[in-house]
Amino acid sequence: QMRLVESGGGLVQAGGSLRLSCAASGTSIDGKAMGWYRQAPGKQREFIAGITSGSTTNYVDSVQGRFTASRDNTKNTVYLQMNGLKPEDTAVYYCGAIGTRSWGQGTQVTVSS
Length: 113
Fold this sequence. Notes:
Blueprint: E1 3-7, E2 10-13, E3 18-25, E4 34-39, E5 46-51, E6 57-59, E7 67-72, E8 77-82, E9 91-97, E10 107-112
Parallel strand pairs: 2-10
Antiparallel strand pairs: 1-3, 3-8, 4-5, 4-9, 5-6, 7-8, 9-10
């Protein structure tokens, strides 16, 4: 069973950047499409970015052009580079294998205006 640990969140001013990491253990991410999700207070968890096993990426419109997903299969880790952060990006961020409903504990991202 894959276990996931997200990290790299924090408090940042609007316009700033953060790089999130998602370290997997128990199962290799090699060959698996991985996704990034977020859940803002009072809202449902939403998919925001995906990266295939071949490193093809896709993003929802709200983060397109600002966020970049990447992966390092040798480290069994996926990343989310977030630039141009906005207050509406404030949420707990999670990663998970696409097609599953299993995530880590999440990492809090707070963007101040």
